[in-house]
Write a structure and sequence with these properties.
With 442 residues, the chain is an alpha/beta fold. It folds into 2 domains: 21-59 and 343-440, Aspartate Aminotransferase, domain 1, CATH 3.90.1150.10; 75-339, 3-Layer(aba) Sandwich (Aspartate Aminotransferase, domain 2), CATH 3.40.640.10. 36% of the residues lie in helices and 17% in strands. The protein has 15 helices and 17 strands. It has helices at residues 21-26, 52-55, 64-76, 88-100, 114-131, 152-157, 183-186, 202-210, 236-247, 268-272, 299-306, 326-341, 344-360, 391-402, 424-440, and strands at residues 31-35, 38-41, 46-49, 107-111, 139-143, 174-177, 215-220, 223-224, 230-231, 250-254, 278-281, 293-297, 368-374, 377-382, 405-406, 408-410, 413-416. The protein has a 7-stranded mixed sheet with strand order 4-12-11-10-7-5-6, with helices on both faces. Helix 6 (152-157) links the parallel strand 5 and strand 6. Helix 4 packs parallel to helix 12 and helix 13 runs parallel beside helix 15 (424-440). The longest helix is centred in the first third of the chain and has 18 residues, at 114-131. The N and C termini lie far apart (46 Å).
Length: 442
């Protein structure tokens, strides 16, 4: 315990995640309120949210139906244990999710984050193969540039070096598909690139290397988000599905970002018409209001695991204290109703062409070397400064914030994913600010 008194707003105690702490605390950016499409900064400015918080506030901020549902539930019952007990709303939410999920994904395992959803999906895959008499299937195939959260399972199957190198031992038995992106062939594609699907064929090489009887699952993002917004080529996901089917391998879609309307459909699996065996979700599930995630599970997997032993034995030795937390569930039910009542998924799909034209209007702007988009997502890749990777994008981030726009940068790419309630004039505002900032950055 320090002898030095701490003031309420002393910045030292909080070790911030995925942040250059010393740099931030020398010039902090604090948000103190949020409503609809805007944050309020600590110095009283309105900041247009170009990132839906962190890919999550799909319905916008401070939406009254969600706020009221949270308040009501907290007053009525703040917590209910999820082990050998339950509360009615958890079953209602699972049913609402099954209604909008792809066919046959009719079972839901609740978590508290995308990272937990990924680790849970991996455990469920292993449990399925064991219950199915194929306990030799223990290996996982991820993909280069993949981001699957920060649990040890997620960083093991993920393909981002910086997320791994500090943490020594990771899960054994993991391999990675090559990345599908080729800027020379795919650069400035509008929507899905028409080349690159053949990258999925590399899965056959990994099957030959490891033997199909050892591989539990392949896990990919249907659209790469956190690594820089890369849009999956036409036909790529179906190729993965076909190869997995051929060899009895499960296919997991990480839809923590793409779920709940981001691409103009309930899930990317819906948009692309490819059926995975499990889907991981979080973020937009309750519009980022209360930590929550979920794994959508195929009937075949659920039934195999649940029916594998006697009725009085726990079937899956896995779960969280806050699985299906009552307040998070209330927020999710209100959010799903809001998505439906305001047709926000359809709205995103309707706005997508306008968004596409607006973001590609930055082609030719200073430093821009590629632009990628799908639904209400965009990635603007900047040429890095010689010997100073990420520095130019960080300057764009700070200068955009100073001009009243919140963006996200990953490497040298500007990532955009606004709330689905965005208006056309706000889309114009985003790209007017970015054009101005790019023109003033060296």
């Amino acid at each position: 315990m320090s002898d030095t008194p701490q003031t309420p707003n002393d910045l030292n105690a909080y070790w911030m995640p995925f942040t250059a702490n010393r740099q931030f605390k020398a010039n902090p950016r604090l948000l103190v309120a949020a409503k609809d499409m805007h944050y309020t900064s600590h110095d009283g400015r309105q900041v247009l949210d170009g990132t839906a918080g962190l890919w999550c506030c799909n319905a916008g901020h401070g939406r009254a139906p969600i706020v009221e549902a949270i308040q009501k539930q907290a007053a009525e019952m703040d917590y209910a244990p999820p082990f050998q007990m339950a509360h009615p709303a958890a079953f209602e939410l699972a049913n609402r999710l099954a209604e909008i999920a792809p066919p046959d994904l009719n079972h839901v395992f609740f978590t508290n984050s995308g990272s937990e959803s990924v680790d849970s999906a991996m455990k469920i895959a292993l449990a399925y193969h064991r219950a199915n008499g194929q306990s030799s299937r223990t290996k996982f195939i991820g993909r280069e540039k993949g981001y699957h959260g920060v649990g040890f399972g997620g960083i093991s199957v993920g393909g981002l070096g910086n997320n791994k190198k500090q943490f020594a031992s990771l899960l054994p038995g993991v391999d990675h598909l090559p990345f599908f992106y080729d800027r020379g062939k795919q650069g400035f594609s509008k929507g899905e690139p028409t080349t690159g699907a053949e990258a999925a064929d590399a899965l056959e090489n990994l099957v030959a290397l490891h033997d199909a009887s050892t591989i539990a699952a392949v896990i990919v993002e249907p659209m790469v988000g956190s690594a820089g917004v890369y849009i999956t080529p036409t036909g790529y996901l179906q190729k993965l599905r076909d190869i997995c089917d051929k060899h009895g391998i499960l296919l997991i879609f990480d839809e923590v970002i793409t779920g709940f309307g981001r691409l103009g459909a309930p899930f990317a699996a819906t948009k692309y018409g490819v059926q995975p065996d499990l889907i991981t979700t979080a973020k937009g599930l309750n519009s980022g209001t209360v930590p929550m995630g979920a794994v959508l599970v195929h009937d075949r997997i659920h039934d195999t695991v649940v029916n594998a032993g006697p009725e009085n034995i726990i079937e899956l030795f896995h779960g969280y204290t806050y699985s299906a937390h009552p307040v998070a569930v209330a927020a999710a039910l209100a959010t799903l109703k809001l998505y439906k009542d305001e047709a926000l998924f359809e709205r995103a799909n309707t706005l997508a062409p306008y968004w596409q034209d607006a973001i590609h209007g930055l082609k030719g702007a200073p430093h821009v070397i590629d632009i990628r988009n799908s639904g209400l997502v965009g990635g603007i890749e900047l040429e890095p400064r010689p010997g100073k990777p990420t520095a130019r994008a960080y300057d764009v981030f700070v200068k955009s914030y100073d001009k009243g726009l919140l963006i996200r940068t990953t490497g040298d790419t500007i990532a955009l994913s606004p709330p689905l309630i965005i208006e056309k004039d706000q889309i114009d505002q985003i790209f007017d600010i970015l054009r101005s900032v790019l023109s003033g950055v060296d």
